[in-house]
Fold this protein.
Amino acid sequence: MDGYIKPIFAMPSIVKILRLLADETRLRLLLLLQGQELTVVEIQEVLGLGQSRISSHLAQLRQARLVQDRRAGKNIYYKPGDHSAHRELAAILEVSAREIPAAANDQKALQLILRKREDKAREYFNQLAGKFGRTYCPGRTWEAVARGLFDLLQPMTIADLGAGEGTVSQLFARRAKKVIAIDNSEKMVEFGSELARVHGFDNLEYRLGTMEDPPIPAGTMDLALLSQALHHSSNPPRAVAAAYRILKKGGRIAILDLLAHRFEQARELYADTWLGFSETDLLQYLEEAGFREIEIGVVSREGKNPQWQTVLATATK
Ligand SMILES: C[S@@+](CC[C@H](N)C(=O)[O-])C[C@H]1O[C@@H](n2cnc3c(N)ncnc32)[C@H](O)[C@@H]1O
């Protein structure tokens, strides 16, 4: 368990504290722990004393709540305790730092120890450089990165066209002014609306309709999103033109879809109408609709067969 363990001793008298401080080693210990936490082994290295002596001093200081400890894996870290915040104690330590000849050397040795700690971490990352992008990094999932970035978005009005049950709509709804999720499946709209209600999104509205003619007034949206939806459209150029229509001037479109592929079974397996789109197809739809500042590129490749590739096209009205 990580976290500082607070002993439940009564507050020691000032006499007890002064008695504890009347020892050079304990003063050196307290001076060392000012500003960082250290393990017994690190303290040992700095003070050049045996482990049992250090442990016994630390135990006494801990009892008086002048230090506290925290277990992290195999190590126990020590840092100043609740009672070390006394103004009087700070003054005593300040004078002691000047009076105890070994204290200055302790600080130099401490800097070495801290550098060693940093070197260990640096060495680890030095070895990983060049491979790190491809190596597993605990906690660094694409979901975490995407969620973090979603939270940085400016509040916008967003149309999610072919939204399904609204997995992406809900991510946007955390920050958006309003999200309108359009889908032509009654069940998706029903299920999505219920999900939005359960999750408390009152800025997420589902509407039954098609991406080729979405029930959204012209010139009202900041962003039109088609995420894995366009390849289901009966008329993709028309869907892109409809997205243009509902956008405000300066509004953006984002199409995430499969790059053109030859996996015919997708028609049966996923009810796909189109086997993805080439970058040229998307460019043509966007240009014909009147979009500018068009950018298109492959943003992900799956390792497993049929090795889907995802293409992202963005543009401005
Ligand atoms: C693969 S899902 C994608 C859902 C969602 N955009 C996502 O990324 O999770 C495709 C959705 O498009 C909807 N759809 C298919 N054709 C449509 C059309 N012409 N207009 C509106 N929605 C459509 C389907 O009902 C389905 O929910």
